[in-house]
Write a structure and sequence with these properties.
Length: 236
């Protein structure tokens, strides 16, 4: 299985790796800093560079549907790599960091709005969460003000792992209604915003809420009887 370095260190931008397999679905490495698309967060882009000067542009990173391993999807007409090749893997850091800031901001939003989460997405400096909130009016300015307080308080973020059985014994940790955390692998990763939020999440996050920067609620939409879509924007 691929060693997923981004799970332990979201700030790792590069790593030395070896190609383990290449096929029509993508390139597999023995270790990687590339996050594969999942949980509403896009897959990383970047490059795989060889010692002889070749560079393969990675246009996306996805999960192998059978194993869950990261698959590095090369751009069309990229250089060909063979199993056993040594490469330096490097992500597009500016893009990833915006995903991290946005994803962490969405966890704050989830803590502020009390309702089941029915969907969401993470983008570069913008994102959204959908909440199951029938007959509920949300105040855009009030939520923006509360977000600003949590960001300014600079709460630390950290991760830890619990067992599948521990998660089953604490079902309130799971806020998402449509997508459940992956179980059956023995353990589940939790992201904690100290004193604010704790929930299962496999995505990449900043070290503290202060790194998120200025954020605001851009729009609140009614998407049916129950669904309230809350859109956030980071104002850089």
């Amino acid at each position: 299985m691929t060693e997923e370095l981004f799970r332990a260190d979201a700030y790792a931008k590069t790593c030395e790796a070896r190609v383990t397999a290449v096929d029509a679905t993508g390139i597999r490495l023995d270790r990687t800093v590339f996050y594969p698309m999942g949980g509403g967060q896009p897959g990383d882009t970047g490059t795989l560079a060889t010692s002889d000067g070749r560079s393969v542009r990675i246009a996306d990173t996805v999960k192998d549907p059978a194993t869950g391993e990261p698959l590095h999807v090369p751009a069309p007409d990229s250089a060909q790599l063979a199993p056993g090749a040594a490469v330096t893997a490097a992500i597009d850091w500016d893009r990833r960091y915006k995903h991290m800031r946005t994803h962490s901001c969405l966890h704050l939003l989830c803590a502020l709005i009390k309702g089941g989460v029915t969907g969401g997405s993470v983008g570069e400096g913008r994102g959204r969460l959908d909440f199951d909130l029938p007959n509920t009016a949300l105040d855009k300015d009030a939520i923006t003000a509360e977000l600003a307080k949590l960001i300014a308080a600079d709460h630390p973020l950290s991760h830890r792992w619990i067992t599948d059985d521990e998660l089953a014994g604490t079902p309130d940790l799971v806020r998402t209604m449509s997508v459940k955390p992956p179980a059956g692998q023995g353990r589940v990763r939790l992201i904690e915003v100290a004193g604010v939020d704790l929930q299962p999440c496999g995505g990449t996050h900043v070290r503290s809420t202060g790194e998120i920067g200025r954020a605001r609620i851009a729009k609140i939409e009614n998407k049916g009887k129950h669904n309230r879509r809350v859109n956030i924007v980071l104002d850089d």
